[in-house]
Amino acid sequence: MAAITLKDIVKRYGDGFLAVKGVSLDIADGEFVILVGPSGCGKSTLLRMIVGLEDITSGELRIGDVVVNDKAPRDRHLAMVFQNYALYPHLTVFENIAFPLRLTKGKFTDDEIREKVERAAATLELQDHLQRKPANLSGGQRQRVAMGRAIVRDANAFLFDEPLSNLDAKLRGQMRTEIARMQRRLGTTTVYVTHDQTEAMTLGDRVAVLRKGELQQVASPRGLYEQPVNLFVAGFIGSPPMNFLPGEIDGGTMHLPIADVTLSADLRTRIGSRRVVIVGLRPEHFADAALLEESKKASAVTFDADVDVTEWLGSDLYAYIPFETSHAVADKLEELDRDLDGEGMRTQLVVALDTESRVRDGDTATLAFDPTKMMVFDPETGENLTFDADTARAIDEQNEADRKASLARVHQRDEGRKAG
Amino acid sequence: MRTLSTRAKVAWAVITVVVMVWALLPVVSILATSFKLPSQLNLGTFWPKTWTTTNYEQIFTGSAKDLFLPALRNSIGISLIATAIAVVLATFAAYAIARLNFRGKKLILTTALGVSIFPVVSIVTPLFNLWRSIGLYDTWLGLIIPYLSLTLPISIWTLAAFFRQIPWELEQAAQVDGATPWQAFRKAIVPIAAPGVFTTALIAFFIAWNDFVYGISLTSTSAARPVPAALAFFTGASQFEEPTGAISAAAVVVTIPVVILVLLFQRQIVSGLTQGAVKG
């Protein structure tokens, strides 16, 4: 087990394409870090540089205290789970898992290998399949064999390259929990690449958001959600995604396409002399005014909206409200949409309402939102003007403390189980 | 799979029998002829009246010995060497074609295809003249080279198609698992590539083994003459006797290795030929 330190890592491919533009990241021992971003953001390249399958153009990569830039993959002692599992089709499940052990010639006896493989198989509930060939296994089983191959040896760290993207939705959920459980128990440093933000949010102690080879923000999932540093992170994290509205400043008021908002003194200083800003509001920050508690009603901004479509999902009710955006920010929002692998669809507001709400397709509904939840972005740089560094740090510290506590609990429970 | 109705079963059985008879009758006929006495060849019966091994004695120990045994040695030697060279070269070529991007890749494949469909008969006369003037006529090498032109193109095509299907990511997985590049190749790639290479080798061997045109045109003595060509030089015990029995016996002898190889490696051949179609 070891910490992984990346310092100004750059990757330039032979054809001159700059895939990773100077990424620095400290991954603590035992930490679960997610690299996330839309396709082509350089996350997989970064992972392959860590494991040694891609050369590092410049920068420094340390595993533990050793600089490993020029070391072969085998000398880095990392275990990797590939997107398509990369199982050896001519070997049985047992031999697949035993493969890394067999390569360490003479280090383990046959009995030791059998014991280790069986323990790994028991962890992953593969005992019944040890003598089968990978071709006869289901997707989830193959996935587990690939994980077995990773956990069977004492690797410095686990690296996952979109391990769940080939599984169907239900299995993906199960395997996600399985990976989280395994990592908590083994306490091994883990780097996990994904483009799926649900995986990023649920699995990671910290999440690193990448865009076009550049690191945008590294923070706890909650930190990213509540205090994104810029428009990109705000738009990428969250499902359904954050709504972006053009906001025109007129003295102490801001005109949104849906309503006018009176600016607080703090917000006014943060906005400064800007005439136009982009306002971000998450779907759940809206509510049906009819169901709003009296105490909240006073501070909320209420507005009437024509609801185009509603989607009732049992636990949520999403309502879609089309609006006209101003050209001042249209280009910026379009660019953002492209960066996020979007389709450049119509501009619409997504609001998540209480399922008790009676708002339906075609209604004119009275909705409300809390103006203090608004995030305000600079339309040029995309910088989050409402970002609060102190709050962000507090969230991350809280998160770190929670993680340590839960790790300690797991260890205590394991100790207890061993003693009992 | 759905079960077949009785009518379909019967129809399939009939078709199978017809095809089998059509394919195997000549083989059985030759086998029967090879056990006939020279004097009874023209009786018009399918099976020999008296079973005899005279013909086999003739080709192994009798008068045809000096013609057949050297030819058998030549056939085995030349075919094996041609196969070995073809497979080694084709493996390298196919590996490069499947994994690397280089200029002229398409050209190589097209040329290989062109060579393989070029009619043998049209090259054989110029080759005969060329071989005579440079001293390759009637030598093993003089046959191995044209055999390579037959076996290499098909080997390159088969292997390139096969190599394209190999999940090369396994090599990287093995390296991460702690293997050296050589170990990764040997333990992860070779076992998967082996059936394909093996199938290709068998196909190449059969092509060389079965050749007649080059064998008869580019040789003149038992120094290099392969079996298919040697059969044409069999003569009867006297000029009034036909050598049909001996020829049949020799034909049976040269068919046996092919049959044995196919039976032994049936599974590998089938999996080698179909692997490309089935993704793991």
TrEMBL record, chain A:
Keyword annotations of the record: ATP-binding, Cell membrane, Membrane, Nucleotide-binding, Translocase, Transport
Coiled coil: none
GO terms of molecular function: ABC-type transporter activity; ATP binding; ATP hydrolysis activity
GO cellular component, one term: ATP-binding cassette (ABC) transporter complex, substrate-binding subunit-containing
Higher taxonomy: Bacteria, Bacillati, Actinomycetota, Actinomycetes, Micrococcales
SMART domains listed in its UniProt record: AAA
Residues of the ABC transporter domain: 4-237
Pfam family, one: OB_MalK
Organism superkingdom: Bacteria
Entry protein name: Putative sugar ABC transporter, ATP-binding protein SugC
Signal peptide: none
Any GO BP: carbohydrate transport
Segments for region (Disordered): 399-420
TrEMBL record, chain B:
ABC transmembrane type-1 domain boundaries: 72-265
One GO BP: transmembrane transport
Pfam families listed in its UniProt record: BPD_transp_1 (PF00528)
Lipid bilayer topology: Multi-pass membrane protein
Signal peptide coordinates: none
Subcellular location: Cell membrane
PANTHER family attached to this UniProt entry: INNER MEMBRANE ABC TRANSPORTER PERMEASE PROTEIN YCJP, MALTOSE TRANSPORT SYSTEM PERMEASE-RELATED
Protein name: Sugar ABC transporter permease
